Amino acid sequence: MNSSRSKKLHKPLIVLLALTLLAAGCSSSKKANYESASETPAGNAPASNEAGAAFTYPMTGGIELTYMNEQLGGAPERLPVDDEYEKRTGIAIKQLGGTPMTDQKFSLLLASGELPDIFLNTWLQYPGGPDKAVEQGYILKLNDLIDQYAPNLKKTLQENPDIDKMIKTDDGTYYAFPFIRSEIGRVYGGPIIRKDWLDELNLGIPETIEEWHTVLTAFKDKKNAASPVTFRTMFLGERTGGFAGAFGVMGNFYVNDGKVVYGYLEPGYKDYLNTMSRWYKEGLIDKDFASIDGATVDKKMTSNVSGATIGWQYYIEKYNSAVQESDPEADFVAAPYPSAFKGGLPEFGQLDNAYAGTSSAAISATTKNVEAAMRWLDYAFTEEGSMLNTYGVEGTTYTLEDGKPVYTDLVVKNPEGLGSDQVMSKYSHGTNFPMIQQDNNLPAKYPATTESIGIWKQTNHESHLLPPVTPTAEEADEMSSIMNDINAFVKETELKIILGTDSVDNYDKYVQQMRDLGIGRALEIQQAAYERYLNR
């Protein structure tokens, strides 16, 4: 039994880590063979347990575990995939409402000592890092437990050293079961535009920042779009490159030629903000973008108020489905991330690490049935578990023809008119679940949906990716202290300049203020952590 289970729970740091590590892919050019997860031992394959006896699913004894996801709100609706998991593993899961790692409620939860058996969260953002969470006695170190109870995860990591490198800390500590994206799944967002408007105006899909200016001006003047482009602040240049990629920058930490840099310090970011400020003044950017939510963006995109946005792949399917019922000519498609010049590639778009740290399942140090928690999580890495998470339930969502899964009419011709992704969200775990994601080749109703990934991936983002580094506990505490102030400062400054309440001419002064707040030390910490990661 791991000794950390017996540690007394300590009160956590109240100030939680505000630094959001960039969800970007590993900078190594060597690609992991993510598909090997489908070759792991079957769910009923024998495995040694603590007593040395063979193990088979399902477990017996009426086991129940509690599980907390990383989403806001109450306990989620119980779905058919939950029933199937319980039947196959013999473990009942009581799902609790989610509390994000950066929310004060999570701090209070830890202080209460009443912890769920399994936490699904982004442990890279824990104050002091995942090693600190283990040291403080909140979650278990999994190294010995993986050897005892998780043969399928262990085999997957042995076969995929690049993944193994990502999901442990510098000292080799495994702290969670990971969600690993497939190679295709690492890109899932980018610019979306009304192609039918472009066709009507005899305009092509914009590729450069100047072409975007021309298109948005035409949407405003000739289509009477009150908000030619709308988006939320998360798409300014932090979560994706957005329009900033055309200026060779992104609002976060990334790598240039082996050195970690902070995009807000780079000269290109001043040029980007100058352009966005001009567009806002010209009425091309949604005047309310600083305060709107996703539902408002959706409403504007489907009511002719806006003709372009930056969002995730499923938005294309959602918007086309909503608008084409009343306007069959409406056509939402993906547009490439804008470049600085025709034929060039933007430096940034949207690209996740294979392991970005999200949806990582740690086991509470207070868990009474550690083996059951490990076995339940390990099931996702079996062949049977991988098939369930990818294709759903055989005979319900797919059948096997010549050994290959073929989707049923429930998925491709749903009698209730649901999209294939809506159906599969009930019967499988396609994303955001501790597993190795497999490409499910899910049919889309609109070709533009499937074409989007190939369009959005045309960037130089791969060469700038900062992998999931893990500063030491002391470094992470120092980073938190520095970046709490800097993160708030840069977001406020960015908005003031775009909204026109401050001049971009003052940006050099703001860069100096970031240096005064300690960004140089933060870069030193990130560089050291990056070099340690490369040497793992």
UniProtKB/TrEMBL annotation:
InterPro entries: Bact_solute-bd_prot1, SBP. Residues 1-23 form the signal peptide. The keyword Membrane applies. PROSITE patterns: PROKAR_LIPOPROTEIN (PS51257). It holds the Pfam family SBP_bac_1. Keywords: Cell membrane, Lipoprotein, Membrane, Palmitate, Signal. This is ABC transporter substrate-binding protein. It comes from Paenibacillus borealis.
